Amino acid sequence: MRKDIDVKIINKDNTLITIRIYGSIDMYNIIDIKKKIIDTIKHNGSYIVLDISKIDTIDSSAIGFFLNIYKICKDINKPLVFIKPNDHIYNIFVMTKLDQLFKFA
User: Fold this and answer.
1) CA Rg, the chain, in Å?
2) Each residue of 16-53: pLDDT tens digit?
3) Does 47 fall in a domain?
4) In Å, what is the CA distance from 87 to each residue of 17, 27, 56, 57, 91?
5) Which structural domain, as residue segments, surrounds residue 80?
6) Within a domain: residue 52?
7) I need a labelling partner for 28 at 20 to 30 A (CA). Which of 4, 37, 64, 82 fits?
8) C-alpha 74, offset from chain centre
9) Which CATH number do you get for residue 47?
10) CA-based nearest residue to 65, from 27, 91, 18, 99
11) Greatest CA span in the chain, whole angstroms?
């Protein structure tokens, strides 16, 4: 993975998976994290928490990625909650109306 992005599985038990993403997500590094996160979601836990509070910046590919994660969780009946990002990132969710689709804690 590139230095400006990191993914850590910070909680993993039979019920809850918490995945924390650090850094910036863009079209250049999204491939690095996509497989790890999607594989973790598909094969672990019943509830998914995606902690995006440590993300600095995102581009449109990250929005598509979050929508993909949402769809996967919905298709396999795993509730998904996002840990609220910083105000700048959250405003992007508001402008795209994804704050109405995603659940934030």
Assistant:
1) 13
2) 999 999 999 999 999 888 988 999 999 888 999 999 99
3) yes
4) 24, 22, 10, 11, 6
5) 5-84
6) yes
7) 82
8) 14
9) 3.30.750.24
10) 27
11) 35
